[in-house]
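User: Round two. Same drill as before: sequence, then structure, for each protein.

Assistant: Same drill it is. First protein:
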Amino acid sequence: MKQFLKKILIFSVIVTTIFTAYEMALLKVPNEYSYKKNYLEEHKDSLRVLVLGNSHLADCIDCSMLGKWAFNAAQPGRSFYYDLQLLKEYIGQMPNLQCVVLPFSYDYQYWGHLFEKKHEAKFNTYRCMYIKYMGYPYCDGEWWHWSEILNSNFDHSGRLIDALSKPLSALTMCDSLGIELDASYETRGDDWMTKQLPDTAALPDSTEQRLNYRENVKLYSEIVSLTRSHNKRLILLAMPIYKTARERVNQQRLDEMNAFVKMLKGINPDIEFYNFIDDKRFVERDFYNSIHLNNTYGARKFTPILKNIIDR
């Protein structure tokens, strides 16, 4: 029995050592999360424009067109919880920061952690990458999300192999100023106009709606208060969507969006909100799917519009 237990112990030590070495090796491979975190660390004294939020801005804000010292720190699937954590860490360390740009649209007031739990595998990956490469644990401090082996759906072995031969942009999936490289016009597919269509009905669980709304009130209120206390402009953008998506967004959702923004303006009347949902300047070739602009034509058209807003 002692021999058996000894063998189990030795085997466990070997497996644990291999897993630990694998996790540590992955730490050395650049990725989008570590790249954006390191960029903020290295340029926090100089940045003037900081783009946050999710894929709606990550895909189509080309900071090379915004002038010097702008960076797109948005990332696909990001909860505003992480935007708040990032602002808490850096806004006081950015003396030259002039404005923060965030997306806000027709369903953001109800999009939150309860929704994420219904898509646990996908969001476990996000939680893992945020805690391991950016240092932000999930809301309740779930440190077990740190392990990519246990939590992440990303291709671990592929990342290690790619690190031997591929350029940095292929590993980070973004350019040097943060715009995503995989949402191009050329790669969108023939079915792009039906991808990621919004739900036509309200969320089925009214309890979930209320809880998500209540949580988002807290998150956004903190973001608004934080930017105001540091005297930074906060620009909220409702991004263009294609007509196949627009047909599924009813007036109630738009009214709720405007009501939420009005509530935030009660905290800080200087908040700037720009609604591009129905902007006719954006046509078929500007979109990556039904609710995202692409990083080709869409970015080239939208970024100058944002620059005009920032320069006012």
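Second protein:
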Amino acid sequence: MGKVVKIALGLLGFGGMVVLGVSWYLETRDQREPSRLAFLEHCASCHSASGNGPDLLTQYHADDSADEITNRILVRHSDLVAQAQFPEPMVKALALYVMEQRQALPSITNSHAHAIPKDVVESQRHAFKVELITEVGKGPYSIAPLPDGRILLVEKVRGLSVIDTAGEQGDLVEGTPRVWSEIAQVGGSFAVLGSMLDVQLHPDYASNGWIYLAHSDRCQLDCGSPWPVTMVRVVRGRLVGNRWIDSEVIWSVDKDQYTVVPDAVASGRLAFDHQGFGYVTVGGKSTYDNLHVMDTPYGKIHRFNDNGSVPEDNPFWLGEQPGDSTSSRNTVWTYGHRTVQGLTTDPRTGEIWATEMGPRGGDEINLIRRGGNYGWPLYTEGLDYNAEYISIGKELGLDFEFSETIPPVVDFTPAPSLSNFIFHNSDQFPNWQNDLLVGSLRAQTLFRVRIEAGRVVEKERLLTRLGRIRDVEMGYDGFVYVLIEHNQTGSLIRLVPTG
């Protein structure tokens, strides 16, 4: 056997061991989680279904916050906390564990299970039914309803296709940016380098036909890398028949900014405001110290003109920078983000809103403000997965006051893994008008959130156990369309009012 073959086989074997190891780690992480073990050792004898006291893991006090449960533990069980020598964050971690159990949050692997309700759903303000439009292929990520009733569909590892008005998914559109097959599938999630992400229509699509795609552009030897590296890029084009034509690169960064970090944290969500400016999100595809470096694209929301030029009123715009040709600071709009998985426009004001995933807790809905610092990784309501405070911000030497950051309008703790969302703006569900309809991955839940005067006045779970919700969009018919990711497939459903 030749030396090269032996090396190749050795690398394949090593790679397989790494994948198996990561798979085992993710699939057993919940069982090994420190606060679960602490609850079983110190609390379950009294506060579980088989205990002597009230079962804390049921829906009793279901509306408690993590802070309220934390304070209750500290006051009522101070002796236990002292005897067990719980560090300060462990008490909050116990509170999070109780809330996660009450909300029946599944593991990441189990979140791919799905069930589409067949009966009428009775919510607080509307009764509705759920219609299955079609099942789709592997890795669905985003949709964009068209004025004629068809729907554009993006599947991360397959590309762009069109679902017709009869619910039939067509062949992949030819001529779009290339996508690559997954490197591995761990816990039902894809590890990919080179995927398609979001699809968005130009605000004046009816007259110009422009469609925008965010994808993870990939290069290797052609950009001097011995292994594949990727980065979010935005292109636009038009759809003629089943072909992508007139393709143009609208937003990109220097290939020196491409990284080997998989696309799961790429984000790549798109939105347009009422002035026609476009926005794209970039997740933490690098080390966290780069999230606050303006010359890097990571952990930021970027703003661009619809034709790809750079607005000179962007908050960090410096014009030509001959000293750093790789800088992406000119398009930075906000920074200090972790993983922005949702981006939408308030149809009343044109303001841009975003959902952001925290660690264990600290998922957020944010109003995006020019030049804003959103605090990660120095400030978060979440904990690390080892039941400790998030310390990486201090370890990196980040030093700014909380008052200098933009706090979330809505905090979700424990974290449901928020995904994309919309403002409802049709007469089909008049009692939801201007409410946020928010998808989630781990929680498999479609939330309805009402915000008045900058504060939450209603929060409701419209649907649960749907599977991993990747996208929520308003159709031109006024119905709500929801894209769900399963393990190897997905579903596109529609919410229709009854009565």
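The mean pLDDT is 90.

User: Perfect.
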